Amino acid sequence: MRMKTALLLLPLLLSSSLAFASITDVDPQDKSLEYLRYIFGSTVDIITGGTGPSAPDSVLGAMSQILNTGMLVFTGLIIGYVFLTGVLNSAHEGNPLGKMYSTMWVPLRMVVALALVLPFSGGYSTMQIGVLWLAGHGIGLANSTWNMALDHISGTGTLYPPQIAINYEQTAMRILESRVCMHGINTADRHVNIEEKPIEIVADDQVVSMRSSGSTGSTLVPVQHKVMQRYDSRYSLAGAGVAYGAAWLSGFPSGVPRSYGSNPCGSISLEFAEIDEGTAIDVPVRSFQSKIIQAHADLDEDLDALAREIVLKAVDDTAPDPDPTAYNMAVQQFKIGYDKAVNDALSEIATARINKWAGGNPDAAGMTVGARDAGWISVGAWYWDLQRVNAETQKMVSVQAELSGPTESAIENADYKIFSSALSAYSQNMQVTDPRTGALVNAMERSTYADDNNGLGVVMSTADSILNFALSEPDPIAGMANVGHTIITAFETTLAAAFLTDLAACVADDTSEAVGGLIGGASRPVTSTLCRMTNKTLWSLVGAGFLLIPIALMLAFYLPATPMILWIMGVAGWLVMLIEAVIAAPVWAVSHAMPEGQGFIGERAKAGYMVALSLFLRPTLAIFGFFSGMLLVIVMGKVLMLLFLPAMSGMIGDSLSGVVTLAALLAIFTIVLIQIAHRAYGLIHEVPDKVLRYIGGGAENLGEASNEQQSRSIFVGGAAKLVGGAGHSMRDKTRGGAQSMSEAAGNGIKSATGAAKSGMSKISKMLSPK
Q1: DSSP secondary structure letter of residue 555
Q2: Which residue among 215, 313, 338, 471 sits deepest, i.e. has the most Cβ atoms within 10 Å of its Cβ?
Q3: Which pLDDT band holds residue 520 (cuts at 50, 70, 90)?
Q4: Residue 295 and residue 425 in one domain
Q5: What is the distance between the alpha carbons of residues 751 and 763, in angstroms, rounded to a whole number?
């Protein structure tokens, strides 16, 4: 029975081993192995199936050779001690090795301990080689995890779903309103005065027709151009006059021709975002835009029959009621088509981008090694490229739809109210999908929250504008980095202009003082006042710099670098842990010879296996922490945006607010966001530190968080000193420059004045009578 069980388990063990090997194999050219060779020498090649050197080729290997010799001697002493006590216990108790020691496990552990501490390659013992091999296959597992993450992003197009800003029902209702307007007025006039114009592309003021009878005439449309659907007058004003005269002569048998002006029943205008038209994404972007145009065209056609039913019911009470589900069906079909266009484009664009990275393209982040080529160790360097994919796709799907309703010329039609009322009655009784349950409900049963604007005031409105600007990027860190760069650019530009203005005003003041006399005395009050005013303005700006520049520097440079800093600290922590494990491996090997405990491992050696497991899993768990941090920052950024302004508005209340208040709000927001980023990306080291607690392992705190906090303190202190030094330098240079320029100007004026006096004296002598 046992033999059959073993035979059944053998294929399972073999398949598990093959699966393990497939996901933990390491490319010999992997960057991690390249760096490990710097530390441990060519013995690292054993990880990829190579043979290590017979003699040490690294300083750690040479020192390990001596350490292993010492541990070998110490192992012999332990074996001798156990053998001696075992003989004495056997003689005293009558049992082999006595009752204290296991006769099966103790001898086996001693043999294993001797084997593990014996020199193997490059000065390292068998146990040290085992630690390196385990760490190397941990690299392979991390690389497989990283590749799977890239595959997922390629397949889905994004790290997290983009926000689609379009309101499907609002778009459909506006199109239905335009359709009802068109058919209603034509019915009232008994003449086709308003007609549907085909979809058109507006490029360089040239209008190109793209649709006839509801189907696009081209599969790809130009990128970044406006697409329109119009419900326009059939006649111009002059044409309507001619048609009206002809109809009047014949008694209006086909209704009354009229002109209602330009687009009387509204229009649809789609503005696509400006996106890099590089060859890598040109085709998927064009394909997306064509699909979005087609989705709107299909919605327009689907709502035509419903619009006719509404108009018919308005003029004929005996007509059947419009289908209450028709509107919702059209909306759902529109949503399906729109979402499919988005998902297809996301996948195509992300695949193009990531494939470009993987080939070691030098255009990708300035690197000649691709994301897949460098392996797990380069994950932190690709943070902004991953965010760029998300930002790019978010920008692409943010189609600006401008929906114009009926104009005054259409509304002024005597019968328009009849059709408008019929549409209103239908919109109240139609069936719509409840977003909470997914069930069809009456439109009146679905409640919505009204927008609440409490009058935030100038300061809070400015803060709200800044936060909205930050939200223009999917990642709040990227958005706030843009805010920081904007503040720095605006401050530098304004400060330069103020400096030059102050310099000119003070030079003019000093020049007036040097000239003296009637002209100098008359101009001095004006120039002196201007000099003082510009100087105060300059120092007000410097004071604002003391408040804003440290914040802006944190936002523009430090905050975006947080993921990379913590990732580098995590990689450094793993390398430190590996070096520690290799050094401790001979001691760990000797611990197997300790006689205490039952089983193959024994009491003393158990802790080492938990550390080894942590060493194996740490790179993979760090990748989990990295991506989890990216997602957590997105979520917490949205929570912060949701709660910050209401909380600050309540805190400030009716207090007098100004620039200092705005700077304080921005500082608080920056501090909170930095704490969120630090907490989120701290998962890079917290996940590896704490996961093994769930199976009894101790937390391995390698100090990455404290190292990052020290970097932050250095950066903040440096920013403060930079602003302070710049302020003092600006003050000295302003007054010194003004003084030197004014002295030069004064000397020039004095020279000119002297020359003028000398010339006048000569002229007067020549003219005086002798």
Answers
A1: I
A2: 338
A3: low
A4: yes
A5: 19
Report which secondary-structure segment, H or E, holds 441: strand 440-442
> What is the rounded CA–CA span in Å between residue 542 and residue 548?
10
Residue 445, pLDDT > 70, answer: no
- Both tokens of 107, joined, read 């001898």
* Domain-embedded: residue 769: no
Sequence-separated (6 or more) residues with CB below 8 Å from residue 635: none
Q: Which among 358, 359, 384, 377 has a CA at the least distance from the CA of 159?
A: 384
Q: Answer yes or no: do 695 and 569 share one domain.
A: yes
- Among residues 560, 502, 487, 577, the alpha carbon closest in space to that of 536 is found at 502
- What's the maximum distance between 2 C-alpha atoms anywhere in the chain? 153
Residue-by-residue DSSP string for 182-246:
HHHHHHHHTS--EEEEEEEEEETTEEEE-EETTEES-S---TT-EEEEEEEESS-HHHHHHHHHH
- The first and second tokens of residue 476, run together, are 């709040």
Select from 33, 59, 65, 62 the least CA-distant residue to 47: 33
Among the listed residues 157, 179, 396, the one whose alpha carbon sits nearest the alpha carbon of residue 268: 179
Q: Rounded to whole angstroms, how far apart are CA atoms 767 and 523?
A: 34
Question: What are residue 600's phi and psi, to 5 degrees?
Answer: -75, -30
Clarify whether residues 149 and 179 are in a common domain. no
**Residue 441 located in a structural domain:** yes
d(CA 26, CA 616): 13
| 282, 431: one domain | yes
Residue 615 identity (one-letter amino acid) = L
> Are residue 185 and residue 128 in the same domain, yes or no?
no
- Total number of domains constituting the chain: 3
Whole-number pLDDT of residue 67: 92
Higher-confidence residue of 47 and 5: namely 47
Q: Which residues contact 96 (CB under 8 A, 6 or more apart)?
A: 86, 90, 103
**pLDDT at position 566 over 80:** yes
Token reading at 719 = 């920013």
Q: How far apart are CA 563 and CA 544, in angstroms?
A: 29
Closest CA to 304 of 425, 168, 178: 178
Domain-located, residue 640? yes
Please tell me the least confidently modeled range out of 269-273, 678-682, 725-729: 725-729
Is residue 615 a contact partner of residue 583, using CB atoms and an 8 Å limit? no
- Quick one: 434 and 493 in the same domain? no
Q: Are 402 and 271 in contact (CB under 8 A)?
A: yes
For residue 124, list its beta bridge partners: 121
490 belongs to a structural domain: yes
Cross-strand bridge partners of residue 197: 230
- Residue 99 has a pLDDT of 56
> What number of H helices and E strands is found in the chain?
22, 11
pLDDT of 767 > 90? The answer is: no
Of all residues in the chain, the percent with pLDDT exceeding 90 is 15
Q: Do 211 and 272 sit in the same domain of this protein? A: yes
Cα 237 to Cα 258: distance, rounded to the nearest angstrom: 8
Domain encompassing residue 694? 459-592+601-728
